[in-house]
Amino acid sequence: MKLVGLFCGGYSSEFEISLKSAQTIMDNFPNGYEVVPIHVVETGWFVPQGSEKLPFSIETMSYSTNGAARKIDIGLIYIHGNPGENGKIQALLDMKGVPYVNSNALASELSFDKWYCNQFLSRFGIPVAKSLFLKSRNEFSEDHILKELGLPCFVKPSDSGSSFGISKVSKAEDLQNALDKAFEEGDTVVIESFLKGTEVTCGIYRSPNGLVTLPLTEIVTENDFFDYEAKYLGQSQEITPARIPDSIRNKVWEVSKEVYSLLQLKSIARIDFMLVDDIPHVIEVNTTPGFSGASLVPQMLGVHGKSIRDFWTEIFEVELASNKR
Fold it and tell me: What would the DSSP string read from start to end of 151-183?
């Protein structure tokens, strides 16, 4: 029986959310595998076993229990942010020759950075918001930002998978505080023009029979936007399937498949859109979307009629098939 190392935790503000996602996955893991959680923290990686924390070696990709070393056969990375969603653990597993079921290091890193990802997609004609990229707080003057993007606008950490640090700015005097908040979460920041429309999100994955697009979820938030509180503290309505015409739904599915293929993604991805005059504009691409009981993808799977266990069974079937080629 193959031993799957489920990497969770990480170095971002969404550490606890990652642990919840990992628990849902472990509770519904495919039959025929053994799964072990690997907690990734900055002070050292470990496998929790009762009250013990068994050290995990990144050199040997193994841990010891009862005097015996156990090396993982396959990796499943479910860290929302650094060092998982941005591709660093994928690169490490590549060097160690350990297969994994996630998108590869390049695809993960590219999709993780909001500005670089959207610039890449825009070169292929995928509609995205107009934006400015900042490496420091004072890179552009306030006048230049307002002239280029107008108000309201969104300020986001560009190189962070977290829901933290994002602000909707409606007044010029709030811009600097929003930049400070974003730079606390990431080293680079993107400012995007406001897209007025209906927000929907699409789950997509590769099954043994090809790409599968899940029922769309419509986001109706009580807050100014789908921030951490709206996403995790119940301050939003998440309506699945989305209340949009079939023709628009089909267009979102079509663009989702194009984005998934352009970025050469694997496993599950969730692509967020704003429908502006019925045209899907990509907001961001998530290669490690939340997977707790209250998260969007499990909700989509439920409406689709697919159990979480059957879903992950399909993901692993694809990985095993690709390793045999």
Answer: SSEEEEETT--SSTT-EEE-SGGGHHHHHHHHH
The pair phi, psi for residue 319, each rounded to 5°, is -65, -45
As a whole number of angstroms, the distance between CA 177 and CA 136 comes to: 14
Give the C-alpha separation, 28 to 24, whole Å.
Answer: 6
Q: From residue 11, how far is each of 25, 89, 110, 186, 301 by CA, in Å?
A: 20, 12, 19, 12, 28
* Amino acid type, 228: Y
Distance CA 310, CA 296 (A): 17
CA atoms within 13 A on the CB side of 263: 38
Residues 172 and 200 sit within 8 Å (Cβ to Cβ) = no
> Does residue 228 contact residue 288 with C-beta atoms inside 8 Å?
no
Say which amino acid occupies 130. Answer: K
Two tokens, residue 286: 């998530």
pLDDT in tens, 64-114: 999 999 999 999 999 999 999 999 999 999 999 999 999 999 999 999 999
Q: Is the pLDDT of residue 190 over 50?
A: yes
* Helix residue ranges, H only, 168-226: 175-185
